[in-house]
Amino acid sequence: MATYRISSILLLLALAGCGAGDQAGQTPAPGTAAQGGTVPARQGAVAFAATFAGNYSQYTIAGNPDGTYTITDIVGGALRHVAPNSRLRFADSAVGLDLDGNAGKIFRLYQATFNRKPDIAGLGYHLETLDNGALLHDVATSFIASKEFSDLYGALNNRAYVTQLYRNVLQREPDEPGVLYHVGYLEGTHPDGIKLSRAQTLLNFSDSPENKDLVLPSIRNGIEYLPWGSSLPAHPVSAYAAQYDGSLRGGDSGNLSIVVNASGALQASGRLTGAAVDVAGSTTLADGGRFEVTLTGTNLSMVVKGSIDLATGVATGGWTNSALGQSGVFNAAKPVVQPSLFPQVQTIVTQRCVPCHSVRPTQPGFNTAPLGITFDTEAQIRSRSASIFGAAVQSQSMPLGNVTGMTQAERDVLAAWFAAGTP
To answer: Where would one find the signal peptide in this protein (predicted)?
Structure first.
């Protein structure tokens, strides 16, 4: 290890040209990680630069030429600018913009080790340990000791291990000089006498320029994670049961309808205006009201990904059509249910109009309903709503001579009922 530290600068310069990065091996810190590595005692989370009331899916994040980021609310359109390397807190999760800092390092290490994007809870846990002083080398060691790593890699010799790193991390077959180079360091046969652990070799691949370029499109606009000690909103799927109607915009525009039933089954459908295609698809609602569904139509396929915020009753997120290179956002809300004014309306009509307009009038001087118009039932009142509005509100000619004493407040209720669409 001493020889390695003395020669580390020379080694890093050499690794830069051989598909490897610049993480040096370090002495483990005290503490124990969930996957078997060592981490220091927790001292506190990194402060959030900005907090947002809605779910992560309700916002878009875009980088600016000066390194800052602009966060846009899909629903309200409000903009907010934050500094480079910020951490953001949303109602359901968080996002790290430190792409070259701890968030970027742990994301790349997950991707490199397991050939997959990290789960947001695991990412949040290990990001917390790094923020509190843990060493990336220790996290890499814990990953190598995990069952998932064992299942993925198996019992490989050094050459096979390096070959698998090329495939899993760099997504390509290795070149022979590169294999010999890394195997030499693993076996201590390199001319400089330095021997590297498998964890360090993994880190070198993870933080290599080639891997950074591969991963960048996935993290360019931030890295989502679940802060340590928190969880996604814990609501039963039945709480999300509703129909959410709205629109999508971006590379194309159109309408979108999302229906969730009490068991969590989700049906989505819509129409793309530009493509003039109807699309539909189904999936099952995931934890936290999240979903990802593929909608298909004639010669068209698009992925819609987002979440439902129970606090607002709004579904938000983004959509992509990889084949056409199109993308955009969507938002959909529960239809606004107008409070029913009809019970009040029926009471007013029964008291002020039915004495005359009834099959059995009770108002003195009336044996039959004027013009045969009756308001004895709900159906009769609703079918004549426009006439009631015209006579009782606009001209105020009904009741005739106001013999039943309709008040202005009652006429205002009738006006509000008609204006609201007669709910």
So the answer is: 1-20
